[in-house]
């Protein structure tokens, strides 16, 4: 049987830093409230001419360079995003052109869980023999949808992109993936960009309900994906959850019964970068030299939809030197 393994990783954050102090000049908030309630100190924000496809292309370029793969060798590009540059063409097509790829390219929208859904899709394409090398990107520019007069949401989100190159392999890199969706929760977190009423274009969220959903869903889907991979939480080297709130990360560590230091956190410097947060966190681990061949990672996300999903990955790349 052909398996899928990660052979390259890359990420990109836009240059402009938006601090809590900057936000405190825009809405009635404080660094103290934001840090205590969320763990976020700063986030990155796209420039006026910078689009999601620009972030995606930068992350994709770095992942391809890390894998030492030429653009013409990529068989498929899947971009997980809920902030496309345009209604159409897809952000993936725009990214494909920027990267000089020639393969089929399309978007997949599972909101903040987008990278896990895209990873599942890429793995299935490789395991079925339909593709050999797939570039999977999670990219979002949520600051474009955020209402900068709504303090309950504008402090949370940032922009960025992260990417994996997956390739057919004898070694099983992606061990198991478990996904879920429940459209009954659609009104908890949404952005109605095609609505006729302009006020509805902005992101709206019932933060308390999304928080409760996250701390219920993440431990459950993590255990499901581990069970399907014939592993337990004790086998996991790193838990890499979607980065939405430090209190969510702490709660899920407690609920899973794992030490907090095994749950990766990047939230302080990035905020919630939606579908980019998981590959961004993994690239951070990798470039810091904290990933070894054989490590077991659980990538676990949740978001609008509602959607949730976990992937168990055996890291097969060598430690960065
Ligand atoms: O990718 C998935 C998307 N999102 C999430 O995962 C978010 C999940 N939810 C959360 O992270 C948290 O629910 C929030 C960070 C959004 C909110 O934290 P909270 O501790 O649940 O606060 P709250 O909504 O219960 O609000 C507590 C108080 C309220 O004031 P009163 O009614 O107690 O007087 C809010 O108006 O804090 C107020 N508040 C703020 N104060 C200062 C809300 N936002 C702010 C703010 N600065 N930015």
Descriptors:
321 residues; five-stranded mixed β-sheet; four-stranded mixed β-sheet; 10 helices
What would you say this structure looks like, in words?
This protein is α/β, with parallel strands linked by helices and 321 residues long. It is 32% helix and 25% strand. The protein has ten helices and 13 strands. It has helices spanning 20-24, 31-38, 52-67, 91-99, 114-127, 151-154, 207-228, 246-256, 267-270, 277-287; strands spanning 3-12, 16-19, 42-45, 76-80, 105-108, 133-141, 159-169, 174-181, 189-191, 203-205, 238-241, 296-303, 307-314. A five-stranded mixed sheet has the order 1-7-6-4-5, sandwiched between helices. Strand 4 (76-80), helix 4 (91-99) and strand 5 (105-108) form a beta-alpha-beta unit. Helix 7 (207-228) packs across helix 8 (246-256). The longest helix is centred in the C-terminal third of the chain and has 22 residues, at 207-228. The structure holds oxa(dethia)-CoA (UT7). Oxa(dethia)-CoA binds next to helix 2, helix 6 and helix 7. Residues 29, 33-34, 37-38, 112, 151-152, 155, 189, 205, 207-208, 210-211, 214, 244-245, 272, 303 line the site of oxa(dethia)-CoA.
């Amino acid at each position: 049987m052909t398996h899928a393994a990660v052979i390259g990783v890359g990420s990109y954050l836009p240059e402009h830093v938006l601090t809590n102090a900057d936000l405190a000049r825009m809405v009635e908030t404080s660094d103290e409230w934001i840090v205590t309630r969320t763990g976020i100190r700063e986030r990155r924000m796209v420039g006026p001419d910078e689009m999601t496809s620009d972030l995606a292309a930068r992350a994709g370029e770095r992942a391809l360079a890390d894998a030492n793969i030429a653009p013409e060798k990529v068989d498929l590009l899947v971009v997980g995003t809920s902030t496309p540059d345009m209604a159409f063409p897809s952000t993936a097509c725009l990214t494909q052109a920027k990267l000089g790829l020639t393969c089929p390219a399309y978007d997949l929208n599972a909101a903040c869980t987008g990278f896990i859904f895209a990873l599942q899709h890429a793995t299935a394409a490789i395991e079925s023999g339909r593709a050999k090398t797939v570039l999977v990107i999670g990219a979002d520019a949520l600051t474009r949808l955020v209402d900068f007069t709504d303090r309950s949401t504008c402090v949370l989100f940032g922009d960025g992109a992260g990417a994996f190159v997956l390739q057919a392999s004898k070694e099983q890199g992606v061990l198991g993936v478990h996904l879920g969706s429940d459209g009954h929760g659609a009104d908890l977190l949404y952005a109605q960009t095609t609505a006729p009423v302009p006020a509805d274009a902005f992101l709206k969220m019932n933060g308390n309900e999304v928080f409760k959903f996250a701390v219920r869903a993440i431990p459950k889907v993590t255990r499901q994906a581990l069970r399907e991979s014939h592993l337990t939480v004790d086998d996991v080297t790193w838990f890499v959850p979607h980065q939405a709130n430090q209190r969510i990360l702490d709660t899920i560590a407690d609920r899973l019964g794992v030490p907090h230091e095994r749950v990766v956190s990047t939230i302080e410097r990035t905020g919630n970068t939606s579908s980019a947060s998981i590959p961004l966190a993994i690239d951070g681990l990798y470039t810091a030299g904290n990933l070894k061949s054989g490590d077991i990672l659980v990538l676990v996300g949740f978001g609008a939809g509602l959607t949730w999903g976990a992937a168990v990955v055996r890291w097969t790349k060598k430690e960065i030197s």
